[in-house]
Structure formats: C-alpha cells, structure tokens
Amino acid sequence: MKKLGVRLALLFLLVALLSSCAPRYSSLLQEGGLPYIVIEKASVLDLQSEELKNIPAAKRKPVIAIYPNSFKDQTGQRKSNGQFALFSTAITQAPEAFLIRALKHAADGEFFQVVERVGLDSLTKERQLIRSTRESFEEESAVKPLLLAGLMVQGAVLSIDRNIRSGGMGARYLGIGSSKEYREDLITISLRLVSVSTGEVLIEVLVNKSVISVGLSQDLFRFISSGTELVEIEGGASENESSSLALQQAIEEGVLSIIKTGIIRRYWEYEKVN
C-alpha cells in the first residue's frame, strides 16, 4: 500500500511537471489518438513602435522611394541549429517590406509619401495596358504621371552577433532540480536618407537590437522499492524572440531617428496642431 502511494505521488508530480513545461501555444495535440496541428488565426502585424505610430504628422509630406535590393543582408550568415549551418539565411531576404511599412505608417500614414519602386516593372506594364486599351476605344489615353521622389532610403543588415551574452542558474534538492538558461544575440542595421537631386547622404543611422532566447528545464529522480528501482522525469521548454520582429523593431527605430534628425536639420516640419 505504501509503494502504491509513492507511485501515485510520483505520477502526480510527473503530470504537474510536464504541464508546467508545456509551451503556451501547443502545436501538436492528441485527440482520439490522432495528432492534429492547431493553427492559430492570422493577424495583421502592426507597428512595434508606438512612438513612431503616434508621432505628429508632417507639414508637407516628403516623397520617398524604396528600390529593390536597397536594403541588403550584408552578413552572409546562415541559420544554425547549434551543430551546423543550414541553407536558409539567418535573416529575411525581404527587409525592404519592413522599411516600406515603417515609412508608410509613420504618424499613422501622415508623414511620408512612399512611391512604388519595388514592383516598378509590373506597374509600368499595367500603365501601358491602360493606355493601349483606352486608345483602342478612342478614349483619351493620358495616364497621370508617376509621382517623382526627392528622397531615397537605403540600408543594410550589417551584422548578426551570436551569443554575445549567455548564462543561467539552477538548483537541486533531494532529487528535484530546476534550471534556467538564456542567450542574447545582437542585430545591427544601417539606414541612409539620400537626396535624389544631389546624391548626398543627408542622414545616416546605426541601430542595434537584441534577440533573447530563454530555456527552462526541470527534472526529478527518486529511488523506490527500497532503492532497487529508479524513476527519472525530465521536462523543458524554450522561448526564442523572433529575429524578423527584432529586425522590424530595429528598422522602425531607425526610421524614427531619421524623422527626428530631419526635424533638427529642418529637412521637414511637424504639422502644427491647433
């Protein structure tokens, strides 16, 4: 009877241990013996920087162009699984999407006019199609001219420094142990505001953003049946900050710095609020 009580107690500890170490969003559940994947609803990503979103509008919105490959990954690094590098790159290969979003949504869309240059070929073809269709119906074929940009923003991911800080701590008592580890990576980006008319680099900023990874593990071992049987229980969970969201935050911080520097150097002005 005593052995049964000990085993029931260990079973209870096992359930509690595994429950505490389970990820908050479980991706694989068992129902009726058949696994299925739990897919969360898609959500629209908002700006990570509330300051950039709520900054005052510009008195006169500058027109800015972002060209393909104007924001490059200069690191050349590949993803790593801890043992060897994978073929996938360590950072997204479309960072200009984050840059366009940050510029377009600054001051809730009231600071910059961002013109399409990433898909310029498709835009030009569509304009030619509109012009030829109107001409075939003998309509006025004039198409409004494209908006010309006076400024360009260029940039690059300069470095991804792995494991610049790491550490952890743990404790064990009477066969019950718990430990926690962390690791910090660092992403560095560069942004440049360039005048189209002169080619001069008007503003240049460097931004660092940390990427944190945290791991938690718990374990338990007990001898039962007069020390002839050993029960061991282990569990763990980890949480890694998204490198894409970290890059988005770094770009938004860089855009915010460009806006503030432009105000100081009188490249543009805030709209006066009555």
Fold and architecture overview:
With 274 residues, the protein is an alpha/beta fold. The chain has one domain: Rossmann fold (3-Layer(aba) Sandwich), CATH 3.40.50. It is built from five helices and eleven strands, in the order αββαββββαβαββββα. It has helices at 2-21, 50-53, 95-104, 120-136, 243-264, and strands at 28-31, 34-37, 63-65, 71-73, 78-80, 85-89, 113-115, 151-173, 176-195, 201-224, 229-240. The strands form three sheets. Strands 3, 4, 7, 8, 9, 10 and 11 form a seven-stranded mixed beta sheet that branches. A hairpin with a 4-residue loop joins strand 5 (78-80) and strand 6 (85-89).
The largest sheet is:
7 strands, mixed
On the 0 to 100 scale, the average pLDDT is 78
Q: Catalogue the unreliable spans.
A: 21-37
Task: State the distance separating the first and last CA atoms.
Answer: 81 Å
